[in-house]
User: Fold this.
Amino acid sequence: MSPRAVRQEPSMLDHRKLGRELDIFHSDPLSGAGLPIWLPAGAAARHAVEEFLRSLEVRNGYQHVYSPPLGRAELFELSGHLGYFADDMFPPMKLSSDDELMLRPALCPHHCLVYLARGRSYRELPLRIAEIGGMYRSERSGVLGGLSRVRAIHLNDAHIFCSLADVGAEVASVLRLVDVAHAALGVRVSSVRLSLRGPGEKYVGSEESWAQAESLLRAALGSRSYVEAPGEAAFYGPKIDIQVRDVRGREWSLSTVQLDFDKPARFDLSYVDAGGARARPVMVHRSLVGSMERLFGYLIEEHGGAFPAWYAPLQLRVLPVSAASAGAAAAFAASAVEAGLRADVVAEGGSLGARVRDAAAAKVPYVAVIGDREAAAGAVALRVRGGRELPAMPMPDAIRLIDEAVAARSIDPVP
Ligand SMILES: [Zn+2]
Assistant:
């Protein structure tokens, strides 16, 4: 197992410090506070995670879209964001007296436009529209830091348009996907919260719809342990939050499923039901793992920078013992890259011991050492992150071993 966060000092695990040491992201005052730049190592890890999420979603009936990170002010008036959320939005960009563009604070308005792009029939529902898309929040500069509070956010988002009767099955399916994503990424859930209506608040949607929605969410939670939070629901619908704890002990929502009775009415969404009548869908906002920024802030700390091999920026480092084995080392790394792995060779830069220590500091999950004997035999001795050394094996077997751990999305480099 990789060293877990709890065994080390929180300050050693601060994702800002590790993010800098491991070249994951960069914050530059010239670019602006809360606008991190993902460096090649961070981008490689994020790319692997995004590909995994998209593939998981496609295999579960989601359709992905691309929509722009900004839109006309009228769009956000219609969605209600300007009414309820203007303080968190950047000021408009005035193009002319009747044309203002705004950076979006959420993806829902564009996904409602995807729904409205053509007429919808009950046969198309549930319609699951997904995107890992950009959105922007005008956070005060004093609260910004690293990846956990940013102004440019890339959310693993989706909106499910369905009938109220379908909500139970849809939410249960979302919770299953949340479990799959958490297991692969190595996320530890600290608590689950069901936010419900409270007395004295105003809510959109009928009494019967709320009662049905709340009981469907309870049913979808099944035997999971969770706490109910009366009065914590948004005015537009109840929600489930799946929370994690960071190294400083603070708890926050990583994954969320939220019902919405408001936006379908605001955008006048409808479909033709089985009897030929017009019906209004319910909208479910859901995120399996939240934003890429907060997710990686958490994962860097949770794993102490030692990501599971499948999303480690560099999966394999090849070290020739001497100049004589450099050719065999380069050929082995090339065949690993050809097999789809992220691999490099370090032939220079000190003794073998120093290069092994550098690879350990970079948290590379597999280090292949190739000496004259291995080069002559077409073999390789693998060292696994954490100190384990495997007996020398033929080069193709080493690639297969790594490939299998990556394909299985195993947390442990040698399952
Ligand atoms: Zn949404």
